[in-house]
């Protein structure tokens, strides 16, 4: 439960959203505390990406989205872009840009029109590229990188913004396990420094390492609670129709699908 004094980084109140004529989100209410990492999970097509896009102000909705207590549409665009950094699912574009310049895009909300990057812009980009192990890629074109390399450059762009709220849709896509561990360390460092991280994750075991889970099913919030709470685990199992189980392994929680016994030829 939220403490009365806890600062809310972003909240949604009675939010519904449609794509075309199809209603996708139904009356979503949520409050995400500042300085925490919340993982959004749920079955394919549940509306996770749609919800994140609404929170980022990229998709219009009914109801209200409040960033730091102020309606999203009341924020001047540049100011809002400094507060909220966004990584979309399977982003494309900018294929001809060098990785360095992609990361520098994260600095746009801080830079005066047509001004050369400042020393701080350079430092933020360098630090972001190092944090995502993308420093050695800085002179390569985005279009010629592998899926995982590309994802690390896009993550660097998000970090370079130095925003207090990071919204990331499937940030672990294409990352191998060591780079997933780097991402975790980066998120922990960000949250430790006071940032709020909201990430859609389909890797449930990774999601269970977050502070809180927001479980979405059929366009509604099924549950929102701490990752270590058995009530959250039960809701997670229910969201996947009992086809997964949550197990404690070496001090952490692991979510595994039930696999039917395989018959071996021998
Ligand atoms: P998730 O991220 O949880 O997998 P999405 O938010 O991407 O789910 O999608 C929620 C629902 O909206 C799905 O049923 C999906 O098919 C539908 N949807 C998403 N994008 C579009 C679109 N551009 N046009 C029509 N339907 C869409
Ligand atoms: Mg999605």
Describe the secondary-structure layout:
Blueprint: E1 8-19, E2 22-33, E3 37-41, H1 48-55, E4 62-67, E5 70-71, H2 77-83, E6 84-87, H3 99-105, H4 119-131, H5 147-160, E7 165-169, H6 177-192, E8 196-200, H7 204-207, E9 212-217, E10 220-226, H8 230-239, E11 244-249, E12 252-257
Parallel strand pairs: 3-8, 3-9, 6-7, 7-8
Antiparallel strand pairs: 1-2, 1-4, 4-5, 9-10, 11-12
Bound molecules: adenosine-5'-diphosphate and magnesium ion.
Adenosine-5'-diphosphate binds near residues 20, 42 and 49.
Structural write-up:
By secondary structure, this protein is α/β, with parallel strands linked by helices. The chain is built from eight helices and twelve strands. The protein is globular and about 60 Å long. The protein has a six-stranded mixed beta sheet, sandwiched between helices. A four-stranded antiparallel beta sheet has the order 2-1-4-5, covered by helices on one side. Helix 4 packs antiparallel against helix 5 (147-160). The model has no long low-confidence stretch (mean pLDDT 94). The chain has helices at 48-55, 77-83, 99-105, 119-131, 147-160, 177-192, 204-207, 230-239; strands at residues 8-19, 22-33, 37-41, 62-67, 70-71, 84-87, 165-169, 196-200, 212-217, 220-226, 244-249, 252-257.
Question: What small-molecule ligands were found?
Answer: adenosine-5'-diphosphate, magnesium ion
The proportion of residues in beta strands is 25-35%
Counting DSSP E segments of at least 2 residues, the number of strands comes to 12
What is the SS-derived class? alpha/beta
Distance between the termini: 53 Å
């Amino acid at each position: 439960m939220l403490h009365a004094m806890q600062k809310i980084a972003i909240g949604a109140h009675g939010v519904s959203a449609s794509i075309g004529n199809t209603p996708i989100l139904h009356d979503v209410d949520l409050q995400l505390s500042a300085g925490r990492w919340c993982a959004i999970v749920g079955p394919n097509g549940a509306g996770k990406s749609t919800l994140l896009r609404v929170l980022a102000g990229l998709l219009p909705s009914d109801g209200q989205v409040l960033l730091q207590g102020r309606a999203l549409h009341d924020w001047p665009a540049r100011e809002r872009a400094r507060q909220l950094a966004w990584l979309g699912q399977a982003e494309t574009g900018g294929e001809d840009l060098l990785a360095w310049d992609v990361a520098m895009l994260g600095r746009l909300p801080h830079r005066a029109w047509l001004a050369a990057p400042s020393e701080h812009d350079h430092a933020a980009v360098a630090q972001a590229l190092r944090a995502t192990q993308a420093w050695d890629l800085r002179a390569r074109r985005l279009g010629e990188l592998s899926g995982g390399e590309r994802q690390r450059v896009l993550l660097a762009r998000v970090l370079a913004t130095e925003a207090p709220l990071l919204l990331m849709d499937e940030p672990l896509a294409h990352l191998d396990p060591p780079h997933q561990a780097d991402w975790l360390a980066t998120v922990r460092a960000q949250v430790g420094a006071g940032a709020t991280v909201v990430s859609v994750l389909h890797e449930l075991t990774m999601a269970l390492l977050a502070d809180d889970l927001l479980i979405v099913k059929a366009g509604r919030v099924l549950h929102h609670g701490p990752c270590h709470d058995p009530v959250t685990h039960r809701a997670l199992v229910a969201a996947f129709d009992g086809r997964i189980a949550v197990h404690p392994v070496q001090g952490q929680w692991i979510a595994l699908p039930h696999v039917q016994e395989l018959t071996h030829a021998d």
